[in-house]
Design goal:
Helix content: 10-25%
Strand order of the largest sheet: 5-4-1-6-8
Number of helices: 6
Order of helices and strands: EEEHEEHEHEEHHEH
Structural class: alpha/beta
Largest sheet: 5 strands, mixed
Strand content: 15-25%
Number of strands: 9
Shape: globular
Length: 189
């Protein structure tokens, strides 16, 4: 159980072009949709804001949409921020089939009052949509001027979280963008 409470923003409103479906977060993996797998990894007391089309989920969430619809992750974060209240916000993609409560707790516990924490993969690439941030830092970003999520959060102070053995296909931040990614996730789930 995490020692620090947090809220979560889950982005689940993309077009899913590479997957070839309207909404990949509805696809099943291990008996639950991709979105529900993310939601079930979050602390029971976390307020969860999902940016996307409303649908039944495994737990109560607040639904919002970015303006305009499909404007991208920066606009999605901007739409969600008014609905969070805790000092730490976890930013997550809605298609992380291997995300665990333990990993989310590690992100939250690694967050500092003046810096976020972002896991990096084996190529030192930040995984922005599996990160944790002080809410005050996120609110200090001019999201309307951010060209991308990286443009918004990449300028803020953050610590890189490097985890030995978790940089490959089984890392908690691995997402499902293609049918091959989905097949692999189903094998691992």
């Amino acid at each position: 159980m995490t020692r620090t409470s947090y809220d979560a923003v889950v982005l689940a409103g993309g077009r899913s072009r590479r997957m070839g479906v309207d909404d990949k977060t509805r696809l099943p993996v291990g008996g639950a949709s991709l979105l529900d797998r993310v939601l079930l990894a979050l602390a029971p007391d976390a307020a969860v804001v999902v940016v996307g089309d409303e649908r039944p989920t495994a737990r109560p969430v607040t639904w919002v949409r970015e303006e305009p619809v499909h404007a991208g992750p920066a606009a999605a974060v901007a739409a969600a921020l008014p609905h969070v209240g805790r000092d730490v916000v976890v930013l997550l993609a809605g298609d992380l089939p291997l995300l665990t409560a333990e990993f989310v707790d590690r992100l939250v516990l690694s967050t500092k009052p003046d810096a976020g924490v972002v896991p990096v993969d084996g190529e030192d690439m930040p995984q922005w949509l599996c990160s944790a941030w002080p809410t005050s830092l996120l609110r200090g970003v001019d999201w309307s001027a951010a060209a991308s999520l990286r443009d918004g959060v990449g300028r803020m102070p953050f610590d890189r979280l490097v985890i030995d053995g978790e940089s490959g296909a089984t890392a908690p931040w691995v997402d499902c963008d293609t049918p091959e990614d989905l097949r692999r996730a189903r094998e691992l789930a």
